[in-house]
Amino acid sequence: MVTTVRKISAPAQSVEREEFASILMKIGLKRNVAKVLTYLAGVEVATSREIEIGSDLRQPEVSIAMREIRKLNWISERDEKNPGKGRPYRIYKLNKNLPGIIEYLEGEKAKESSQIMKQIEKLKALKA
């Protein structure tokens, strides 16, 4: 079910994913969200279990991350019937492409930076 976006060697892909997730965390995303986003960016669709394995997270961590990603409307999900017995399983897909997600993050950081600069200007004005 897992389909990679780019064809690169597994070790190189792993290093690239780790670096990507690390940068997402450095700019303020929670670890679990960064790892899930990084995994989903590399596949067409994935089940919750595939996300757990691919992002090296436990099921509760994936659920929490998915809740946050869902709030941002970056993911679409659908249920697929299990071929045997049991509950259907949920299939996840990034709803927004990586450039769009990065653009959103860039905008949020720009707003945050602007607010900080306004506070610094207030400090300067109070000191003068």
Shape: elongated
**Can you count the helices?**
5
The rounded distance between the terminal residues' Cα atoms is 63 Å
Number of domains: 2
At the fold tier of CATH, the topology name of the largest domain is Arc Repressor Mutant, subunit A
Low-pLDDT residue spans: 1-9
**CATH superfamily heading of the largest domain:** Winged helix-like DNA-binding domain superfamily/Winged helix DNA-binding domain
For the residues shown, what is the average pLDDT? 87
Secondary structure: helix percent: 55-70%
Q: How do the helices and strands follow one another from N- to C-terminus?
A: HHEHHEEH
Per DSSP E runs of 2 or more residues, the count of β-strands stands at 3
Physical arrangement of strands within the biggest beta sheet? 1-3-2
Q: Any guess at the CATH architecture of the largest domain?
A: Orthogonal Bundle
Largest sheet: 3 strands, antiparallel
Strand fraction band? Answer: 5-15%
Radius of gyration: 18 Å
Helix- and strand-based class? mainly alpha
